[in-house]
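Run log, item B.
One chain of 489 residues. Sequence copied directly from the ordering sheet:
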Amino acid sequence: MSDELTCPQCGKRMRYNFQQSKIMCPNCNYSPLDAKMTEAQARGPRPEIDITHRGEVNHNAMSAFRTGHDLLYNGDKQKALDSFRRALNFQADFADAHLWIAELTEDEKIKRDHLGIILAYDASNPEALRKLMILNGRLTPEQATRTHHYNDLPLQQVAEPVKTETQVLLCPVCSGNLTIDDESGRVECRFCGHVEQRKPRTLNDDGSDSLAMALIERKARGVKWLIGERLLHCNECGAERTIPARKLSEDCPFCGSTHVIMQDALKSFEQPDGLVQFSISREEAAANIKAQLGGVTQRIANLFDNNRVRSASLDGVYLPFWVFDAMADITETRTYKGSHRDSRFVMAKTQTRSTYTDGIFNLEVCAVESPPERITEKLGKYKFDTVIPYEAKLLAKYPAQLYSIDFDKASLAARSKVSNHMREKHSRKETGDEQVQISIFSAVRDMNFRLLLLPVWVATLTEEDGDIRTALVNGQTGRVVLGKAEKKK
């Protein structure tokens, strides 16, 4: 007896009932069709599936996609996969069909292929990024489930100084203090001459990260720490002291050893990705500031205020900068106003619209609040072909600050700069017709970033009248920026 025709309730043979048009058991009236209907009613209707695809979706592709989810809801995984593949035959860039194929397949290569196709069309698709980060081990599935929210992380103030892990910059041969040779840029011992080996430069990996991935990873954390001070323990002399949270490196006031903070107990910050070494000496920086103070504008200012410099201090420091690369979708609208030369005929306004993609690279956003942005943004562009991989020992001569402006906040400033840059760049196009007006709209589609330490000479100038003025010098190009004089606090 066929198992398909055996009644699961009483074991009798089922037969087709012509009056009710279905297979039934003549003994207990059981019907497989009724059982399936009851099961479907118990499950209820299939839940709606959120669509992540940005843009229009072909109706045939959408129909195949929905059919795939009906099949998946009924437990037919293989036919569901076939239906999702059929959706891609109608629309190759349909992100959600790629997502569900990557979700259902067991083959990691196939998963990566489909996720890669999504990100080629939409580099910030959050679902594709989450799945790829899980494959890469950057997120666990549990962490990924905690990122499906749009809320900012709660801020948690830390009342006590946070313990830190540091690296002491001492010579491995004689235990003397390390320094940097200004001409060669080498890390060497000032006592025995030992030269430290540096990381080799790599052309393919500059340490940059996807902004979209970093933001998702940030959401997986439960809290954002606000730290006022860190506790520094010197392994050389045993002294302990607190330092401001803004410092990345610090000299021990008791034994003189240089300490670089590698991490704190809360893992509240990221290490820099690279560094640009000083190429402007202290003497050159001082001469550039003096020349700037002797300029025409400053001489005129002296006629109205006693702002001659009485004393000055000049120190080299590495300031952290978030450096962004961005790709943007540009929408260009040309409005043809018509000719007004002939008053008997005025052409109605018409518009044409075109879209294309453009990029901007090495966009700098200073990651500290002091010195203020109004000064640091005028330092001028750095040349990033000289960036070297960051190592703690590169801070042997000049100290470094730790960022106080995080990448998420800096990215908002970067987006604004991208928009302004694209508007200025593409609005300058020559049309040859004064009656044509060009308007530009840009939307950032993809952004990468890295954290670099850039060289800056910081001067504090005390004027004859007691006012204090800050001056900055780009440690690579020598460009001088003078701040406004302020009353001494």
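Observations after the first pass:
- Residues 294 and 300 are 10 Å apart (CA to CA).
- Residues 155-197+206-271 form one domain.
Flagged for discussion on Thursday.
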